[in-house]
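Lab notebook page, bench 4
Experiment: in silico fold of construct C2
Operator: M.H.
Input chain length: 162 residues
Purpose: comparison with the prior construct
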Amino acid sequence: VQYRPYLTRLFSIALDVYLQMHLVVNDLVLKVLCRDAPDWRLQNSCPACTYTLKDEPDLKFKLLFAMDGNDSLKRISRAAIGASQKIRAKYPLAVVSKLLDMFGDNLAGGYDIGCKFGATLNRSVVGPRAQALNYTSLVPAFHGYAHRRLCQLRFLARYVTP
C-alpha cells in the first residue's frame, strides 16, 4: 500500500471535527442534566462523605481528604525543582482554599509533608480562614512512619483531635 500524505491530513481534520462535536454534545447533555455548574463534580463527588442525617452525631472530622505531594518530580534535575518550589507550594493551598469554600468547617487534609504544610498554610493568605474554620493538617499513615515520633503524635489522624 502506497503512502499518501494527503490522507493523513484528511484523517487529522476528520478526527478534530469528531472530537469537537463530541465536546459540544457532552456539554449539551451536562446542561440538560443540570450538571454544568463549575463545582458540580466536587459537590456531588461522594454522597457517603458529604451527606449528613438529621440528629447524626458529629464525627472527629467533617471531611477527611488526602493530597499527593508529587515527589515523583525528584526525577527532574534539582535546579528545575528548586526553581518551581514556590509554584508547587501553591497547589495544596489552592486545594485547601477550595475545599473550605465548598465544605466549610472541621476539615482535615492529609499531605505527604502535612507537618510542614500546616505552618505554610498558617503563614499564607488562606491561614486565618483555615484557622477560623478549624482546618487540621495531617500526615497520611503511609507517610507517617517516615516522620519522627513527635511529628507522628502531632499529625497522624490516629492521635490528632480537632
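Observations: The chain has a mean pLDDT of 84. The radius of gyration is 22 Å.
Next step: discuss at group meeting.
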